[in-house]
């Protein structure tokens, strides 16, 4: 469910929007007081803010500035102010959209989902760019770490590529054998899989004795983490 924080002192409008958006799996929590809204953002997680500009005790543009400064959350300005200066200022401060009142609630619902789709895609791209150290190119049958090619034998590549495809999940020895064209249970009778794992660690780990990426899960198998 999408969770929205609304800062709106028109309680009748807030109730109408809350009930309308509920049918689209959007849960709205309204705050009449801007200071209460800012405090709640520090303890509760919301996906998006709907912000009025004419508020008691604090101008909406100042609220917008505080949110942008302290939180990474998209903002839709919902205001009856018709001055183009307010719209320009709000967008310059970092608001993601400006919806002048009155408007159709359906338009608000569409804008919410459009902004969240764009926001979440951008956040995922940034996250992947920052934390993904290893890249698997299945066409070239190559694995790189921080863009640098890792020289692997065919068996090492098969094992590591399988684990990368199932990143974060524990893979049993039997699973590795069943999904490998080069390995089988007879091949491992002398502990060859453990030898391959050890060789891979020497090629990808900073300290093979204290692995950060290729973990042994005692009694279960192995797990690969790409961060």
Describe this structure in words.
It is a single chain. By secondary structure, the chain is of the alpha/beta class. It folds into two domains: 2-130, 3-Layer(aba) Sandwich (Rossmann fold), CATH 3.40.50.2300; 134-224, Winged helix-like DNA-binding domain superfamily/Winged helix DNA-binding domain (Arc Repressor Mutant, subunit A), CATH 1.10.10. It has helices at residues 11-22, 34-41, 60-70, 84-93, 105-131, 154-165, 173-178, 192-204; strands spanning 2-7, 26-31, 48-51, 75-79, 97-100, 134-137, 142-145, 148-149, 170-171, 214-217, 221-224. The strands form three sheets. It has a five-stranded parallel beta sheet, sandwiched between helices. Helix 3 packs parallel to helix 4 and helix 6 crosses helix 8. 23% of the residues are buried. Mean pLDDT is 88; it is low at 125-129. Residues 3-116 form the Response regulatory domain. One of its GO terms (cellular component) is cytosol.
Concise synopsis of the structure shown:
With 227 residues, the chain is α/β, with parallel strands linked by helices. The chain has helices spanning 11-22, 34-41, 60-70, 84-93, 105-131, 154-165, 173-178, 192-204; strands spanning 2-7, 26-31, 48-51, 75-79, 97-100, 134-137, 142-145, 148-149, 170-171, 214-217, 221-224. The strands form 3 sheets. The protein has a 5-stranded parallel sheet, with helices on both faces. It has a 3-stranded antiparallel sheet with strand order 6-7-8, covered by helices on one side. The protein has a 3-stranded antiparallel sheet with strand order 9-11-10.
């Amino acid at each position: 469910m999408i969770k929205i924080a609304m800062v709106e002192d028109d309680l009748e409008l807030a109730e109408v929007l809350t009930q309308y958006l509920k049918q689209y799996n959007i849960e709205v929590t309204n705050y009449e007081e801007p200071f209460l809204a800012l405090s709640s953002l520090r303890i509760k997680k919301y996906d998006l803010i709907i912000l009025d500009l004419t508020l008691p005790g604090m101008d909406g543009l100042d609220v917008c500035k505080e949110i942008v400064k302290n939180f990474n959350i998209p903002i839709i300005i919902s205001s009856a102010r018709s001055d183009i200066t307010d719209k320009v200022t709000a967008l310059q401060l970092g608001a993601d959209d400006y919806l002048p009142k009155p408007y159709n609630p359906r338009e608000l619902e569409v804008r919410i989902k459009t902004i969240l789709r764009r926001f979440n895609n951008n956040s995922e791209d940034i996250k992947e760019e920052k934390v993904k150290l290893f890249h698997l190119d299945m066409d070239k049958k190559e694995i790189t770490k921080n863009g640098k090619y890792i020289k692997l034998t065919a068996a090492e590549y098969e094992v590591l590529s399988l684990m990368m495809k199932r990143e974060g999940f524990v893979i049993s020895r039997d699973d590795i054998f069943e999904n490998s064209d080069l390995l089988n249970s007879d091949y491992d009778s002398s502990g060859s899989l453990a030898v391959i794992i050890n060789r891979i660690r020497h090629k990808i780990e900073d300290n093979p004795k204290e692995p950060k990426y290729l973990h042994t899960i005692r009694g279960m198998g192995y797990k690969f983490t790409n961060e």
